[in-house]
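Collaborator request, handled under Task 6.
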Amino acid sequence: MDLAFLFRYAIISRTICRMGADQAAAVLRALSFRLKGERRMRRLLRVFLTLLWALSLCACQDAPRQVTSFALDTVCTVTVYRGQDEQAGRDALAEVDVQEARLSRHITGSEMDQLNQDGFLALDASLESLFLLAQRVNVLTDGAFDITLGRISDLWNFTAPQPQIPDAEALEKALSSSGMACLTLQDGQAVLTKDALVDLGGIAKGYIAMQAAQLLRGQGVESAIVNLGGNVVLIGQRPGGGDYRVGVQKPFEPNGTLIATLAVQDCSVVTSGVYQRFFELDGVRYHHVLDPATGYPAQTDLLSATVVCQDAAYADALSTAFLILGKDRALVLAQQLEGVEALFVDENMQVSYTDGLAGKVESMP
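Structure tokens returned to the collaborator:
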């Protein structure tokens, strides 16, 4: 068997790997009848084709199945590498839709809409744990994370065609009706006071990404990526073993322009940034990350904060709070939190990160 023979069948192997299993088997059987010549050559071919068949099966099993939809005001993508077919990804995206219908206050009849309209809501165990997590992060960050800023968000209305700076008096009134003290959890219920509005925008995507990932794991998926617009859950290792490489967007550059990559596996990676939604007026940029203390966009030296931990909801909330806290305070706090790593991009495009990410970060030129 000469090199030309091997080269020819190496090309064939690449084609086979792109086929389905049944189609590939039929092609390989046909090839076994095409070769003429001595008995030794036929034996070598059988060995080669057996190896090729095994390799093509492995390659086909690891070929990514990717599905995409638009939900949560962003592009949502599920990529399944190993464990199930494309249907698993579609099921995960269907779960995203189900959870959005529960948690978005802008969807009439959702549970958050009911809470904001009625002032109280009976919570199931999963939703109660989410509210408790929000309270916990509020305390950890000295109030930098707050899910009761709905009225303030409405005044800023960053999704409007032409956003405007809110009236100062209206903003002050909304601020007085906000704050985590307005939300009480008791006897399995959430109770709102002072006309506050709950908005889960700073934690919901992470929570929903975790629900989608949990569904995939329940279907036997061993290797996959759930990406809900920067809220990423990594299941297992990348195909072939080892870490996934997760990109960190370079602020204010075209989408896909990276400032760094992270080598991580089987965890959540969530990035929040002041560049993601903003408007400019009279030469001043107003971003969507609101400071609960002032009701205005946070005065911060950070452009983005990326959090790595097991729980995507926790990472989502922390990444928002870290932006508000600023680089120095956020870095100190991130170093103290068990199971949490973080990467920051400051206003000078300088990258800094916690000690646990040493050796896992690659800066882009």
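The cover message to the collaborator said: "The chain has a mean pLDDT of 88. The CA atoms of residues 145 and 221 lie 33 Å apart. Please let us know whether this matches your experimental observations."
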